[in-house]
Amino acid sequence: MAGNTFGRIFKLTSFGESHGRGVGGILEGVKPGLELDMDFIQQELDRRRPGQSKITTPRDEKDRVEFLSGVMDGKATGTPLAFAIWNKDQKSNDYDNLKDLYRPSHADYTYDAKYGIRDHRGGGRSSARETIARVVAGAIAKLMLKETGVDITAFVSQVGELRMEEVPEDLSAIESTPVRCPDTKMAERMIDYIDKIRQEKDSVGGVVSCVIRNAPAGLGDPVFEKLHAVLGQAMLSINAVKGFEYGLGFKASSMKGSQHNDEFYTEAGKVKTRTNRSGGVQGGISNGEEILFRVAFKPVATILKDQNTVDKSGNEVVMKARGRHDPCVVPRAVPIVEAMAAMVIVDAWLMNKTYQ
Prior knowledge:
Layout: E1 5-6, E2 11-16, E3 22-28, H1 38-48, E4 65-67, E5 71-72, E6 75-76, E7 81-86, H2 108-115, H3 131-145, E8 151-159, E9 162-163, H4 184-199, E10 206-213, H5 227-236, E11 241-246, H6 257-260, E12 264-267, E13 270-273, E14 281-282, E15 285-286, E16 291-297, E17 307-310, E18 316-319, H7 330-355
Antiparallel strand pairs: 1-2, 2-3, 3-7, 4-7, 5-6, 8-9, 8-10, 10-16, 11-16, 12-13, 14-15, 17-18
Helix pairs in contact: 1-3, 1-7, 3-7, 5-7
């Protein structure tokens, strides 16, 4: 299987399956001497882990990371940093009835078509549990970005038809509710809505928005590795992601140039823009303004309602799914979006250092 590595200088290769022994990664490009704040790394893992509320899967994983190489006396040595998170609460028997079935809108059929074999236990490599390696790498990327002053904050801006129209100035309330929405009243509505969907044995999608503040101008490499293109690749590689837009996105297609253009001005000798409809990126390179983007997640494919499908022999059957599944992945996706954004920004920052 190809395609398990992301990044150019700050580079993650991930491995593992949902119901295998564990998941993990090998991380290159970590700054030698970087202090690995284990409390912070664990805090990031805790934001993603399951079993924290009634709107997530009850699978009980503590998600403790173990570093296997590249660390001495709590600091990165600059050599490949290998790590693993061991699975503890698998219930693989829950998936035995799916061994010969193709779940609608899941990766079962496409994996079989490509490889001639698939891991039916929770989706194997296609499971969102793979993203835990990204969260570890993203946490380390955030530690490296501390010295640059870059701040990355993602939040739930939409669940189903419930949507926040504006990016709030104050994002401090994000971690105060399981749904991770900075508007507490909207968060309560979203939680009730997701719980209703859960009781109906169904699932629902949504949107995670992200704000990158204090990114310097000049990040990104045209033509094929424009900053927004790499961000798009990073986000679209996350399980269940179906859409990515930055700035005004598709809304810009219905505007005139006079409505969309961001006019420049100078303030204290610094070039700035009066508006930020470009989302902080122009010509594929950051312009020093806030980088704004949105990531659309589809409803979880595995639901507990009966669904029509086919088996490996092509026979039409009715599938009765079992197991533990999120009714909505969006709240737990927030730290994953942040992690991938951090990896993109630190990689672009390191690329810029090679030009100096």
